[in-house]
Amino acid sequence: MKKYLGLAVFFLIFSCKTKRVLVEGNAGNKLSAEKIIENHYNNKTEFSTLYIKASAHYEDAKNTQNVSADIRIKKDEQILVSIRFLGFTMAKALITPTSVQYYEKIGGNYFEGDYAGLSQWLGTDLDFYKVQNMFVGKALDQLKGGNYQVSIADKLYKLENNSDGKTFKAYFFEGDNFLIKKETISQPAQERSLEILYPDYKKYDEMILPLNIAIDAIQNKGNVKIKIDYKGVTFNEELSFPYEVPEGYERIYIKN
Questions:
Q1: How many helices (DSSP H) and strands (DSSP E) are in the chain?
Q2: Are 47 and 208 in contact (CB under 8 A)?
Q3: Helix (H) or strand (E) holding 100
Q4: What distance in Å separates the CA atoms of residue 183 and residue 152, rounded to the nearest whole number?
Q5: What is the pLDDT of residues 20-77, one digit of tens each?
C-alpha cells in the first residue's frame, strides 16, 4: 500500500513528443535574498485548473513500480490523483487544504484524515499548498519574510535557512527566470531528509512548468525515490473530481 500512497502524495504531475526545454541561465552577480525571492515569484501561476498526465518510477527497499497518473488541480481548492497500471486505476487520492483522502485497490484499503499523520510518515511537514507548489515548480515553502544566507553554488543562487536550529532548508535557483532547480530539507536529529530536483522546464503561453521531478526521501525506516515525467498538460478547462471509496474497503490509520 505504501508505494501507492507515496506516489499519490508526491504526485499529490510531462514530456511531449518534442520536448521544448526552456534554456536556463547561470547565477551571475550576487543578489540579495529579497531580490532572488521577488524574481522567483515574478513567474506567473495564473491558472484556474490544470490537467496533467504523467508517468513515474517508484523505488524503495522492497519494491519498484512504473505507473501512470492523471492529475487534476483546481487552484488552491483540490487535487485529484488517479494512479494507473496497465490502464487500470489502482489508487486515487483527493487532497484539499484541510484533508487527505486515499484508497488503493490491491489491499482494499482507504485513508481519511488530515496532514499530521501523513507528514510524520513522509518525514517532512506537508500541506496542500506545498503539494500544489511542487507540481507548478514553486518553492515548497512561502519564502517571503524569511531569514536566509545567500551564496552561489554550482552556478545556482542558493538560499539557506536554519532559523529554528533543528530543520535545515536550502533552495537553489537558476539565473534567468529564477526557477527552482533543487530544494533540500534535513532534520538530523530525526535522521531524515528530503531532496527535490527539477531538471528541466517548459514555457507555455499560460506559465512555465516543470518537465520532470526527482524526489529522494531518506529516513531511518527506509528510503524512497520517485522520478516523474510530465506527458501532457491542459489549462483552464472545466474539470470534475470524482472520488468515492468502493464498498467493503477497510479504513487504515497512520500513527503520528
A1: 4, 16
A2: no
A3: strand 100-104
A4: 14
A5: 788 898 998 889 999 999 999 999 888 999 999 999 888 988 889 899 989 999 999 9
Using alpha carbons, list the distances in angstroms from residue 188 to 69, 128, 185, 210, 217. 33, 25, 10, 29, 13
Percent of all residues in the chain with a pLDDT value above 90, rounded to a whole number: 64
At 118, the amino acid letter reads L
Cα atoms in the 13 Å half-sphere on the side-chain side of 2: 16
Q: What is the pTM of this model?
A: 0.86
Q: How far is CA 248 from the centre of its chain?
A: 31
The strand ranges marked E within 11-87 are 49-59, 64-74, 78-85
Q: Is residue 200 within 8 Å of 222, Cβ to Cβ?
A: no
Return the residue matching grid coordinates 531518506.
218
Nearest Cα to Cα of residue 194 among 171, 227, 162, 217: 217
Q: Is 201 exposed, middle or buried (0-12, 13-18, 19+ CB in 10 A)?
A: buried
C-alpha cell at 39: 524574481
